[in-house]
Amino acid sequence: MEHPGFTVWLTGLSGAGKSTIAQALGKELRSRGMKVEVLDGDVIRQNLSKGLGFSKEDRDTNVLRVGWVAEILSRNGVAVVCALISPYRETRQKVRERIPNFVEVFVNAPLEEVIRRDPKGLYKKALAGEIQNFTGISDPYEPPENPEVVCNTAEEEVEESVQKVVSYLESRGWLLPKQDKSEE
């Protein structure tokens, strides 16, 4: 099946579940025969944005670089799933304006929950003052005001979050509903 390219942009605090949802969504889209590319913030920082720090300017540069890659891929029929903290609304809006089929997904987990999870030990270090400009602690995170999808990861399983995104993509006609095997 040929499908239009689109970009699903997962934004939220560190530890909210962006990468987990992105990987599961990528797997679901591939199972439906789509060309998929998952652009994960941690991997991007090691490759495309190596050398950038965590100042507002560097964070914006990182987000705009990923947005440019997503734009190119999606206009060539690829389903792009981006998992980046992308803390600033204005920069996310710039990316949205460049990509015709853009879906903003707010991966919402309360600060208390991501501090409790702290999979990389970063919140502990940030709270101790060992990490400067840490989103949600010493640097702001601006939640989306009107995201297309909200995933409340403190309350729902990964599969529920993925299904919310899939349902939105189906409602737009960018993804055909999954065929029931009994109908084939």
Largest sheet: 5 strands, parallel
Tell me roughly what share of residues is in helical segments: 40-55%
Sum up the overall morphology in one term: globular
Distance, first to last CA = 16 Å
Tally the beta strands. Answer: 5
Q: How large, in whole angstroms, is the Cα Rg? A: 16 Å
Structural class: alpha/beta
Task: Give the helices and strands as they follow along the chain.
Answer: EHEHHEHEHHEH
Give your account of this protein's structure.
By secondary structure, this protein is α/β, with parallel strands linked by helices. Helix content is 42%, strand content 15%. It has seven helices and five strands. The protein has a five-stranded parallel beta sheet with strand order 2-3-1-4-5, with helices on both faces. Helix 1 crosses helix 7 (158-172). The radius of gyration is 16 Å and the shape is globular. The model has no long low-confidence stretch (mean pLDDT 93).
